[in-house]
Structure to design on (1266 residues):
């Protein structure tokens, strides 16, 4: 199944040491390019400006460890890439236990988790480890080594344009800048990859699809700085895809405006996919929607998630691993996004072609025997028709009559086939 | 009282075998014409088109029964006209018990009720009976006879125009196509008849009243097809009158738009007539509002009811008989409709003629002694005045200050008499 | 503290026998003029017209008592000025106990309270006393004397204009026409006096402040009749200051429109000052907002109170004395009004100067180390920025992000200092 396939991709991508820049990002994009061959991969040089921001140095880390005085590696980047702070500068030094302590990061309240820590914009070095491991480190001398570079290079991102009948676009964004973490982040690129394959496979697409795989924050800012005019002109809806791998819940985060087509669509899909889905507000934002919906940018981007970043205990630790996400968690998210896109594609403003109710039994669409109760299917058809005045979209009608959008499509088709809807 | 009178009319009309067409409709309209002499009765020939519909054949049934092999009539149209399916075609046949069964209709969950079944638009025949009676029919041979006609004829309806000072109209509709059932349907035409007599008796009417007695669905569609231009130009409010005979509750069904004057008026009346009235939605519709509010027709028609069609167990069975409705049930409904019409007639946009509060004690409208508490009557007067800025209708003011519209009328008159309102 | 000072003023003003007109009003205004020297005191002659009203005679009372047949004063105006009905005409008469009774006013349900009663617009005389005292008055003869005048004179009020950078005005009104009562009324003028001193002391004021001390109702009507054109042109917000002395609760009464700047500001202040504040509606109005918000006047005046007039048992009785109000009750009210004025003064429409989120760490406004949790202060700054699109006022943003307006001011200043807001 597609869920298992996505899980395999996540498994392959998991060990790569991604960061904002560098070899890990390139390996990740190359892997995805094999799955979606028509990807365009861009590079932006260190020092390039993007609004208030500047592309940082490219970071490379070859080795990093803390060893005891006998040379035993106590904390080793090669066993888990979360052990070294993202963008750590190179260091090679002997410190005693107490001196070392100010370079260590751990979570007392989650003593078995290695935290994820970065320092992109200030030179720093440090190691992350479980709190239990930290407590177990005896006094003595330690050899600390980080064999890393921070040198001018490039920042990479990928873009895929899937053309449709019209130039108006659906914009899909996901990020590829976190090391070995599964829900936040690998669920995002693998579900986006499957979505791209599905969109490519569709025979008819009304809208053009613009899909980007970028480093979070700096990547979306760079992408916006290069494409904002076109995006503002063309994008009529879209989604930031993140945290779509587990099975604990579905959740929704609105756009800043809160009333865009994407918001309406996402809420409709989630209402009929998981009636207990969690609703967050714009105040809970935390991913690239921060840029896409910022003042003056104002793209109509909403977010459909499973367990939201910042809201599950495993978030940004080594516990957000491949056991946290599941094939069916990924597949449910993919289905929700496909439903959302199908709604945008098929969201017509239907208009009935007859004054008064059509004589449905004439078309074989109504029981010829009238008694006390009406079949639910017929009732739904009549409820649909009663709002087909050309002023309501099919999505608005679905909300008005409390039916999932996708169950109205066959009814619309039947009515169209009988000439009853235009 | 008027309640008892209305009940008498219902009693007279009960035995008549009404259907969409035929002698029963004509007898019913003639009876009503004696109570409201200026009724215009129209006929529309079989085969006439009305939007998506066609006027059906006229149906006549002279006799119908199931007899056992000894000639005993087991099920007999002459004992209850619900026993034969509406629009049954003629039949004269001998069948055994098992063959007969597929032509029988009963309600296992209401074993003493004869259901009401029709087949207007497909030729069919059948008998309705209580489930207990059905179970008691032994095996053996049965003689089935329906002496009926389905022949080109006419469909009848009646219209009454009661002129007012202006051409804008209040539209009142009720239906006269159901055989012996009381709440749905006879309560409708008898309350409408009393309402018409009352409207005729009024000395001043601002609005013109258009009242129709029609067969449900096909009748309203025919009426609309003939009068839609004038209706759309003139009708500013109105009510479909149905299910107004019992005392179990009051209920409200909105227009499709839900925010018309009729909706506001009906909800105000019901709020102050029965604070526990039931509120239905447009999705619960089921009578001629389906046509009056359909896309492109969009008349502002709401519905004030007692127990709503489809919502009480006796509905569309022989249990909806004269014991289900009462004189005071009918009278309460009439009063609610009269209140609604009075509101529409008197819904001015009052404007106070003074800046700041008027000096009410100068006009004898306020206590000259000021102490802790204010009389409720005076408080209501001051609450009314404070919203008389010409932007709120009297109905909106009544809602804002939580008082029944009809209790504001004497206050408005007093203020006008003192020159304080224009 | 300012609370104690305001309480001292209330203490000084308490014994004065104020009414709509007369020496008590003048003494009160003169006292306030010593605290705010630039007050303009106006007089309007008896008989002057103001909309539907006429300035009444000036009332003077020198002595008033009920004495028993031995000359013992049983009820004496000199012991409490509530004992005589406001605007009592002169009388000098002997009555027996029963005759006297129809001129006595007491409250059976509050047997120790002297009620406050007036008869401004109908000649009348009477005495108010506690119900216990009334019951204790034996049969016998009583000598009743009221040494009062009702003669043409003047009605006085005071106005203070404190100029600001622009001509648009904040309008503050309070009343000075009640005899010895503390919450309703002295809390009003003393808090208004402190507010005026504070406004005078401010170095920068954007708005011009118009502050009036007037007799209730007739005073506001007169003031409006003289100043309505200017008020309608200039006033953008304001407050009626009444019942601001006790500590039982905070409360809010909206303007008639309910959605003015003053309403929004008052509700924001109260939400973050006392989350359990009471919300009244326009139907609960009872002071000069009745005139300021009347049809055609429509000034944007809301009311921030402690225990509202008419809603606490001591209201309009001798129990509303100096023990009912407190220094900290007065001070809390003053602070709430200062907060409200500060919001109006500083309610800009901020606009961020960068597309996408500013790179806050560049300005030292953000942690350079990214881990699981974000500091509340930084989160608030980012929440503020995300709504700085020039379309939301700072007050609207404060409501959107659930922070008190006054806590956003230092953040706005920091962002402005870094060139991030315009």
């Amino acid at each position: 199944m597609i869920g298992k396939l996505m899980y395999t991709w996540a498994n392959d991508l998991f060990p790569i040491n991604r960061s904002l820049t560098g070899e890990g990002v390139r390996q990740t994009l190359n892997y995805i390019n094999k799955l979606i061959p028509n990807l365009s991969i861009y590079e932006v040089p260190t020092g390039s400006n993007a609004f208030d921001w500047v592309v940082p140095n490219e970071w490379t880390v070859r080795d990093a460890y803390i060893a005891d005085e006998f040379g035993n590696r106590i904390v080793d980047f090669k066993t888990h890439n979360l052990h070294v702070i993202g963008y750590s500068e190179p260091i090679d030094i002997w410190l005693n236990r107490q001196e070392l302590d100010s370079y260590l990061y751990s979570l007392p309240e989650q003593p078995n988790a290695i935290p994820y820590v970065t320092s992109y914009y200030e030179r720093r070095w440090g190691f992350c480890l479980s709190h239990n491991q930290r407590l177990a480190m005896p006094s003595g001398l330690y050899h600390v080594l980080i064999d890393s570079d921070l040198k001018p290079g490039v920042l990479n991102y990928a873009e895929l344009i899937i053309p449709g009948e019209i130039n108006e676009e659906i914009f899909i964004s996901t990020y590829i800048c976190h090391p070995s973490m599964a829900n936040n982040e690998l669920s995002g690129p693998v579900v986006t990859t499957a979505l791209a394959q599905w969109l490519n496979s569709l025979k008819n697409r009304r809208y053009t699809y613009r899909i980007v795989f970028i480093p979070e924050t700096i990547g979306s800012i760079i992408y916006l700085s290069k494409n904002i005019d076109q995006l503002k002109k063309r994008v009529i809806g879209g989604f930031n895809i993140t945290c779509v791998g587990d099975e604990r819940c579905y959740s929704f985060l609105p756009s800043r405006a809160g009333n865009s087509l994407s918001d309406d669509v996402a809420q409709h899909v989630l209402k009929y996919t998981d009636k207990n889905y969690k609703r967050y507000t714009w105040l809970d934002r935390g991913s690239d929607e921060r840029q896409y919906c910022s003042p003056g940018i104002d793209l109509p981007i909403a977010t459909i998630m499973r367990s939201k970043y910042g809201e599950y205990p495993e978030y940004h630790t080594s516990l957000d691993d491949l056991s946290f996400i599941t094939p069916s968690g990924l597949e449910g998210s993919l289905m929700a996004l496909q439903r959302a896109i199908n709604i945008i594609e098929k969201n017509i403003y239907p208009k009935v072609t007859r004054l008064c109710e059509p004589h449905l039994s004439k078309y074989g669409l109504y029981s010829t025997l009238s008694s006390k109760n009406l079949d639910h299917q017929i009732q739904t058809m009549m409820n649909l028709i009663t709002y087909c005045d050309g002023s309501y979209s099919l999505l608005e009608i679905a909300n008005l009559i409390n039916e999932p959008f996708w169950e109205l499509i066959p009814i619309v088709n039947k009515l169209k086939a009988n000439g009853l809807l235009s």
In short: The interface with chain C takes residues 50-54, 105, 107, 115-122, 124, 217, 220-221, 224-225, 228, 256, 282-283, 285, 290-291, 293-298, 310, 315-317 of chain A (CB under 8 Å).
